[in-house]
Amino acid sequence: MLQVYTNLSDYVIPFLGLIAASSLIFYKANFAPVFGKIYQFVQNRGLAENQNLNSELVKINLLRILLGLILFHRTFYIAYYQFYLDATSSSFYLSLTVLLCAGCVIIGFLTPVATTFLLLFNIPIDNMMKTVTLGTDVLQMMIMVFCLLPAGTHLSLDSRLRKRAYIGPVIRSLYQCFGVPTLEKIAILKLLLILTYGSLCIYSVTMHFDDIAWLSGNANLLVVTSSYLGKHYPFFREWSQASPEIAVIASKFSIYGMMVWELFLIPLLLWNRITRNVAIFWGLVFFVVSTFILQLGWLSYYEFVLWGLLFWQCHGLNPKANTCFKLIYDDKCNLCDKTLYFIQKVDLFGVIKETPLSVNQEILSKYGISRENAYQDLYGIDPQGRIFKGYSLYLELTKRVLLLHPLFPILYLGKFYIGPFLYRLIANNRIRVFGSCSVPSVKSTSNNEGDGLRAKAEIRDNQWLLKAFLPVFLICILSYFVRMPIVQQLIGYKPANYSAPIRKAMNEFGMNVINVFNYHDLHLNNSFFTVSRYDGSHWSLLPFTGKEGERLKWHQSDRMYFANSLLWRRSNLDGHNYCDLTELDTNSLSELIKLDTNLNHLDKQKLKYRVDYYYQPLPTIHTQKNYSVEFHKINHHCTIYVEPQRLAVLKKTVHA
């Protein structure tokens, strides 16, 4: 337990110490002019186009829910597999704590407390469990935003609890400790997010400068054809052999483009609209490839949320608040009333302005709509004055209301005869079938869930946490730059040595050492082993690694992926020392056997296991004269039979 406390405090104490010192130093400082200038800069760069505060807060909290779901999913599998490995370990209980915080983030219960815990402890917990990834760093950046804003003002249990008589004052006081959410504050946090993620990309690309696969442009070809890193490696292997020239050129184009994107991401995003759109598009393509072609764990899912936080500014958000889509309806009709009630609930961003006929007769003459037609059909008027009615109105609503987007293809196909026919049938008989209502249930709303928190558009100088945070962020990001290997070669090692005491505090911002897709990762496919179980009648392959080195089911948990599989492979890149059952082999194998027996409720005394070791060199890529890609055969080095209780070697066979 002492070790756990030490591991956690190594990160938290320096970070909190810096925040406390900054808070004391700048407690009376007037940061309002600084905040205002940063906001103006971000706005001029086109990164603060949504001027509807309520809409922006709803968007951020919708992304909060999405991020919470991703974190919950990831942590669930970590905790699930850790339970079967050792349900009494501190790692299991820490993963349950993170799981609980993720649940609180999803439902929006005590959200500032949950995000603060994650900001402080998520990185050290992941490090202690050996499950820390690049995705963890990206997650940490967004947790920083959700904590400082704070998130939870909308689409949350907290937004309902603050209205209650007894617990409401507690919830309101909790949120006010973190400062008032404002447009300026959101813009400042966006800039911090861009600087942090951009710095991580710069660190990454400087490490690529020392890798021959990146400099030659072949890295992406090696990744997509790797059975360990590529989801569709058989297809890409066949394609690269059938069309080697195209495969090599595509690899070079994508890898050099990626290096430019990583190196210049910050200036590209801040220069002008064209460069920003190019950078956003390249990032989206990279995230899509990472999700559907590569196997990068949860990284790409986090990055989609990151892109949403930064660049989702207009579509479906009603960014100017005064450009609503007017929906004219008969508020004396039960069906219309229920339809509008549903639309009101799914219209999170206030895109639709309900306009009941009983109190808005003048709007009919303004737009040339007859009274009879208005009571016969629903009418909609967009900000440009275009009029929609009937079935075409519903189709338009599915394009404008975010949560109705999934219905658009269905209604679009239905517009060919069957849709308008059904609509007309229901519209002509709505009063007779559904009746009329004397008291409409639809009330005009503005979705101002955050009003109780005084969510004003102007920033105040009472943002004590943001004031304390900004100087610490500046110190950490400068220290992060001077600690980059390429910068140390240019300016020397003294600045990096001075920043050593706050190295782990930088990790709390997501500023971490990053060395991915270089030599070690590109050679992960070289060495692997499979484990099979014999139950007295037949052999069964454990769902850990396949016979071509591909990942199987157990890799869905980062506990088995990073703390077992990846750890072993990175230590056995060259294929030497096979069949000796080193300490690393024993640790990895004992976990796999323990997981297998506990998951399947097996008796170890009746089992034995077979471990097969394999080695496959990287493919040979020829670019001189004739292009060609040559994949080498998998060498089956040896087989070891072990007794599961003591991991005693029963038999060893070395293959020629």
UniProtKB/TrEMBL annotation:
Q: Which UniProt key words apply to this protein?
A: Membrane, Transmembrane, Transmembrane helix
One Pfam family it belongs to: DCC1-like
One annotated GO molecular function is: protein-disulfide reductase activity
Q: Where are the transmembrane segments?
A: 12-29, 62-80, 92-120, 132-152, 186-205, 249-271, 278-301, 402-423, 464-482
Q: Extract the InterPro entries matched here.
A: DCC1-like
**Protein name, per record:** DUF393 domain-containing protein
Q: Which species is the source of this protein?
A: Legionella quinlivanii
